[in-house]
Model the fold of this input.
Amino acid sequence: MHEDIREILVSREQIEKRVKEMALQISVDYKGKCVFFIGVLKGCFLFLSDLAKNAAVDTNVDFMMLSSYSGTASTGVVRTMLDLKQSIEGKHVIIVEDIVDSGLTMNYMMKNLRTRNPESIEVCTLLNKPSCRKVEVPIKYCGFEIPDKFVVGYGLDYNELYRNLPYIGVLKPSAIRLEEKNECK
Done:
């Protein structure tokens, strides 16, 4: 375990098992169809990669980057940093997200994507934090429900660090104060 991690909430083994289960369910639900995965950067990249590798359906992948965070807290204002490069009109879209907490970002994204006329649109998230919800969003595929703790690892970061951890962990309070410089130790 990394020295800055207080506790591991979801182990590498739990993640691997659950991602395979989610990919299997998507494969069953979309048998004979092409799925258009839209990854929400940056946090989704490991999850989306593993999900797509394990899905037994044809897939197309594109990315969006939205932000509502500053440090450890959501600002409540969603900004589009990077938009899709491909049309989703008539496509079966699955939004792949690392974590849904307030629901504000996902709500914004779903409204935005619906205006582009996809055939269908669903949400797939590795982590769900319902105790933080400000806006309800429909989540069809959920990896793990977690408590209201700031988590890092498996794509999730704190000031661009810890994304490479193979598990989901909670940072020690001392790490949050020390890492404000946004650089590796």
